[in-house]
Design brief:
The chain has 493 residues and is of the alpha+beta class. Helix content is 29%, strand content 22%. It is globular, with a radius of gyration of 23 Å.
């Protein structure tokens, strides 16, 4: 099999690995990013709630936690990063609700701690505000009438984590980083000052390893006895609502006992389990179950009674990777292994999306201290031009685009108004599966989940990739959509 040489190997193409790769592309360094899946951002990143800029709730985030410091440092980096990479970013603010005077203890503590710590740890954060019942219900007329007030945090924003991850990987590749998809790490050997990493595509020799493998971070570290940490996978449930009820709330609304409801950049609403209904999970078990789904739905209705089960168009579970309980729920493992030089674990934990830009910046310093020579890349290009989103264009812009390419006049996905031109552009930019197309330009994200547009997208993928329709998969591997041609199994040889 093939043998590859690189100086720095990043294992894992989620938000952390992609952000680190893009950060390293600012320097003249020989870097390779490998991802076992067919696309970037399809593990824990895909299961995110989309919320960023957390950290103003300083009850949960404390300066003694490494994770908290990454979140606070990452907050001012996120909006400029999204602007450079042309991915959606929207400030929505959050409302931490309370029902009675006793319930004000937590909000008052939030305000007190924010006042105490904001200047030191969050100098650019806008101040929190205590708002009364009248203001609350004028802002959010659909929330439960029992709530008498809230703490308003204007800093909270939402993004598309998968689209950001794909953009980070694209920009890293644009700046000279080698990316290898469908490349699974099978084993690792440590040999003096080198690592030999066996993959399904050959051996990769390197001097430094950054282990950003998400759910598999412990498994990768164990291959060279660099697992000087323990992680606890906590199972969390999320659901997304139809866009037709997207105006039920305007801000992220949350309460410790009842979880969270938040808008997205695309007009849907997400809701998720409260901390009390999250539970320790079995790693890699992504199955939803009725108990956790019912708990999450009932908690959501405590926040917004008008939410209906009929409006749920998709649901899933993901894992929040917490560190040892004794060092705090919000701790992380970002640093060089105590037992093995030049092997760096990068498991951020919750909320990893917000912390990723700061973790990438911190990784530069870690590598430099471990001996990597870093010289600025004078050709670094921070900007990445995103393909046009047809549904967001003016009528004149749509006509101009269709004049250049008539495929932009052919609507394939009616739920999200996605054109054939956008799907072809997504394939040219790296999509090789239905999910690859879906997470780049959203066909199949509506209520029908590809029931109408799916077969058309399969035809387009097969045509553009030069493969048969039976070879098209949902997300790579054995996830084929079409197993046989019609009546093929009835044919007699």
């Amino acid at each position: 099999m093939a043998i590859y040489e690189t100086e720095v190997l990043i294992i894992g193409g989620g938000i952390a690995g992609a952000a680190i790769a893009r950060g390293l592309s600012k320097y003249k360094a020989d870097v390779t990013l490998v991802e076992k899946g067919m696309d970037f951002g399809q593990g824990i990143t895909k299961s995110s709630s989309t919320i960023v800029n957390q950290g103003s709730n300083v009850i949960k985030f404390r300066p003694e936690y490494h994770n908290s410091r990454l979140v606070w440092a990452g907050r001012p980096l996120m909006e400029p990063l999204c602007r450079e990479l042309q991915v959606p970013y929207q400030k929505i603010g959050s409302l931490t609700l309370f029902k009675n005077q006793a319930g004000m203890r937590h909000p008052k503590k939030m305000l007190q701690k924010f006042e105490e710590w904001s200047g030191k740890y969050m100098p650019q954060a806008e101040p929190l505000q205590l708002i009364d019942r009248e203001t609350l219900h004028s802002w959010e007329p659909n929330i439960n009438k029992e709530f008498i007030g809230a703490v308003y945090d204007p800093n909270i924003a939402v993004i598309d984590p998968v689209r950001l991850t794909i953009a980070l990987a694209e920009n890293a590749r644009q700046n000279g980083i080698l990316t290898m998809l469908e490349t699974e790490v099978l084993d690792i050997w440590h040999q003096a000052d080198r690592f030999a990493v066996e993959t399904n595509k050959g051996t990769i020799n390197c001097r430094y390893i950054i282990n950003a493998a998400g759910e598999y971070v412990v498994k990768i570290a164990q291959k060279v006895n660099a697992d000087d940490f323990a992680l606890y996978p906590v199972k969390s449930y999320m659901a997304v609502l139809d866009q037709k009820v997207g105006n039920l709330v305007n801000h992220m609304v949350t309460m410790e006992e009842h979880g969270t409801i938040n808008p997205t950049v695309y007009g849907n609403l997400f809701f998720g389990t409260s901390p009390g209904s999250q539970r320790l999970g079995k790693i890699h078990d992504h199955a939803t179950d009725k108990k956790i789904a019912d708990a999450a739905f009932e908690h959501a209705r405590q926040l917004v009674p008008a939410i209906s089960e009929r409006d749920i168009i998709n649901s899933w579970v993901g894992f929040i990777m917490y560190r040892n309980f004794e060092v705090g729920w919000h701790e992380c493992s970002v640093g060089v292994s105590r037992w093995l030089p030049r092997f760096i674990n990068a498991s951020i934990g919750f909320p990893g999306i917000c912390a990723a830009p700061a973790a990438a910046r911190e990784m530069i310093g870690l590598l430099a201290r471990e001996g990597l020579k870093l010289e600025q890349n004078p050709d670094f290009q921070p900007f990445r031009k995103a393909p046009p989103v047809f549904n967001e264009l003016s009528d004149d812009e749509k006509r101009e685009l269709m004049a250049k390419d008539q495929r932009y006049g052919h609507i394939v996905c009616r739920c999200e108004t996605v054109t054939e031109g956008e799907i072809v552009a997504a394939i040219k930019n790296g999509a090789r599966s239905l999910d690859g197309v879906k997470f780049r330009c959203r066909p199949g994200m509506g209520r029908c989940h590809g029931g109408f547009c799916g077969p058309k997208i399969i035809k387009i993928l097969a045509r553009e990739l030069g493969i048969s329709e039976e070879e098209v998969t949902k997300k790579g591997g054995q996830s084929r959509y079409l197993l046989h041609k019609s009546k093929e199994l009835l044919e007699v040889e």
